Structure formats: C-alpha cells, structure tokens
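Weekly structure sync, notes
Attendees: PL (lead), two postdocs, one rotation student
Agenda item 3: pending single-chain targets
PL asked that the sequence for the first pending target be pasted directly into the notes so everyone works from the same version. It is reproduced below exactly as submitted, 176 residues in total.
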Amino acid sequence: MAAYDDRLPKDLVNDFQRNRDGRLSTRQWLELITEPVVSLLLLSVPLVLIFGRYGMAGRILVLALIAGFLATIVLRALRFARVKLCYRVLYAERLQPRWKFWRKTVLTSRAGEPVRFQQKIAGKLKIKPDDALHVYFVSVGDRSILVSMIPQEHPKAELAEPSDDFLRRGGVIFAD
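Predicted structure, written out during the meeting:
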C-alpha cells in the first residue's frame, strides 16, 4: 500500500485552516455562490446576441438579464453566509472512476449508512477504498455539499481536525 503524498496544494491548506475554525474559505464561498451563474451565463449568451438587435428595448432586456444574475448571486451569498459548516468522519467504501464526474459522491458513516453529496467543491486528493476521511460539508435544504475532505491517514491530516473555535462559531460535529 503506497503512502500518501505529504504535499498539499496551498489553497487546500487554506481551506482546512478556515474549515477547522467553522468557516468557509473565500475560495469555497465564491465557488458556492457563483456555481449556477456560470451555467446561466452560458445559456444566456444567445439571448444577449438576439436582444442586442432590438435597439433600446433589447438593451433593457439585457440589463434585466444582468440584474437577474446579480440577484441570484446576492441571494446565494445571503444563503451561504448563514449556513453552518458540518464535520463528520466518513468512509470511502467504494470509489467511482474519475470519468464519472456527474455522479453524486456517496460516503458511508461508521454505522454503514450512506451519506450522499449532491455537489462537491472539495479539492482533488487521492483516496483509497475503505479510507476514513475528515469531511467538512454544508447542508442547504435537502442538499448536502461536500466542501473539503482528507484521509485520516494523510501525513497532514491534523490540519483538518476541528479546532476549539469550531463549535463556538456555529459548526456542527456529527459523532457516530
């Protein structure tokens, strides 16, 4: 069994330092907020080109479209500013091939119950089957979003353990 690479990307280290204190990093927060806007922008490019042909009325419609994008960003910013960060030790029972990127991430608890994440913004780390993972996630409505994770066997796994400030800042620790 090969050992883990003890180097972590700088942005992942920053994510864990913020997550362990009960907060999202700036990168994570921006990624959560702008996630639907990228899709909307791609879908609306043809509309902007079509509306641009209609003079002043077309420009007003384009401005309304931009206002809709800004409203989406503001509403998501308010939603994710109030969300509680959760910590849980979960297990990678079976891994999905990387080429199946559209599939939901499913990890299991110690009791064997599956925990499904509809979205994943966690950095890419090599994970082996049956690894125990430090997992940070947020729950919004009925959706769970995987924010960061690292195997407990990783040489730098102590970066991911919740600090004393985690509960004080509103974080939730699941004890299985």
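Discussion points:
- The chain has two domains: 10-22+84-173, 29-81.
- The first strand starts at residue 85 and ends at 92.
Action: rotation student to compare against the earlier draft before next sync.
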